[in-house]
Amino acid sequence: MSVIVLESIYTAYEGGSEPVIKDLSLEVDRGEYVVIGGPNSAGKTTLLESINGLVKITHGRACVCGLDVRRRGFEVRRRVGYVIQNFYFDPFTPFTAEEVVMMGRFGRLGLLSRPKESDYDAVQRAIKTVGIEDLAQKTIGILSGGQQQKVMIAHNIAKEPDLFMLDEPFSNLDFQAREFLQDVFKGIVQQGVPILMVAHAFDGLPDIPIHLVVMNRGRVTGDLSCQAEEVEEIIRKECEVKERCSSG
Amino acid sequence: MLEWLIENNVVCHALEAMIFASVACSILGVIISRMSLSSIGFTMSHAAFAGAALGMFLGANAQMAAIAFSMGVAALIGPVSEKAKMAADATLSVLFSLSMAVAIFLISYMEYMGKGLSASSLLFGDVISLYREEIYALAAICCLSILFVLAFYKEISAIMFNMKIAESAGVRVKLVYYVLLFIIALSVALSLNIVGGLLIFVLLVTPASIAGQFCFNVKSMFIVAPLVALLVSAFGVWAGFEFTLPVAPLVALLLTGVFAISVMLSFKRRINTKIH
């Protein structure tokens, strides 16, 4: 059964001159590693936020984890992990890294219930998986951008999601950290949880089949399966072809 | 409630009122200051002021009208911010202007009609002439604030951390946020008679700011802020009656003094220059 089924969806922001996502269809199955590429303002982040219901879908059918996103966006978000692209935490943010990781569990816990032993275990597992044991008791605001990014990834791993979405997860990370986390993501995919990753840099992708989605101007211009080392070239070609078509 | 400790009824009522108001406001203040919603203090106090003016204009109970008007304004903040795609702080400023305009319009009109409106107790507060019912109402809102934080602690802390991340995690952000606005509105409207619209800001912002100078986590801020507010308020009431000074401004001055000292003593901002 597909985890994501999008059929001809449109997403528009208020005041926008045209929809950001246009007539987009996509299907993602369990255990798929999906890379979404394309030029700036192609609608990649909007696509992720349409999938978890943060941005309103105006037309079309969207079913995620068996739930209708347009009607049950809140329930979808409880089951979908999403590492956002831009965040800033001031140095005096009064939360430790461990507390932030625990917040990933809050949606699943629901109102009025307190974290149980199993939730604390999930948090410790996530911290260990991402390798941030030494940062757990530090306040998040004093961590470096890369360390904060790792905490946000652990926050979503602790959630134990049915679908994992990441928006530019490596933007602040060094080469070693990227390789380490790619192994972590590979492990998540092998457990059957699909990953959707928006990225601009494609070095160090795991050696597993990649479901590549190329986007341009709100539409999917390429939807194919390939190997990790082919990703960058395919995206480059797709973008060049579309650019030539639109300018010619 | 504290008659067993203080014989003088007036002092006893003043102490009880100050304690309940300061604890309720300082707990909510921790949330407000973290979410950059400090302007909610003056917006709500002016909404209550406009409501009281409307109540007097219509010949209704001023306090009840103040509460009703504040609740109405609180109900508008969330939906207006969402619809207009504005930051809550900008919406608060718009609603502040509306409240102020309503209040000034009604006061001017009543003066023109030959009816006076005594606004001094709403603006400056009056701890001496409080009714028992008002203290019970304050005790109730104080308990409600504590229960609200205890019941929704995890949602509140997630929202205080980052609203978008909380929403992505599946936290019911809107529900908790709207309930929070309502409780703030109610607390401010009920506290108006004690410290007045001009000083309510001190109770909302200063204890949380003092706690922020020393606390590294939110849990301790929720304990330190009301504790500081309680101790300073109690001392302010005692000193006010002992030396015949106006209690509410004295508490405001004391809290500001404690804030100044805490800024000087804060170890949280210390820069480690140790060379190993």
From TrEMBL, chain B:
Gene3D superfamilies: ABC transporter involved in vitamin B12 uptake, BtuC (1.10.3470.10). Keywords: Membrane, Transmembrane, Transmembrane helix. Its main location: membrane. It holds the Pfam family ABC-3. It is a multi-pass membrane protein. It is found in: Membrane. The keyword Acyltransferase does not apply. GO terms for cellular component: ATP-binding cassette (ABC) transporter complex. The chain crosses the membrane at residues 12-32, 52-78, 90-110, 135-154, 175-192, 198-216, 223-241, 247-267. The keyword Repeat does not apply. This is ABC-3 transport family protein. It comes from Methanothrix soehngenii (strain ATCC 5969 / DSM 3671 / JCM 10134 / NBRC 103675 / OCM 69 / GP-6) (Methanosaeta concilii). The lineage of its organism: Archaea, Methanobacteriati, Methanobacteriota, Stenosarchaea group, Methanomicrobia.
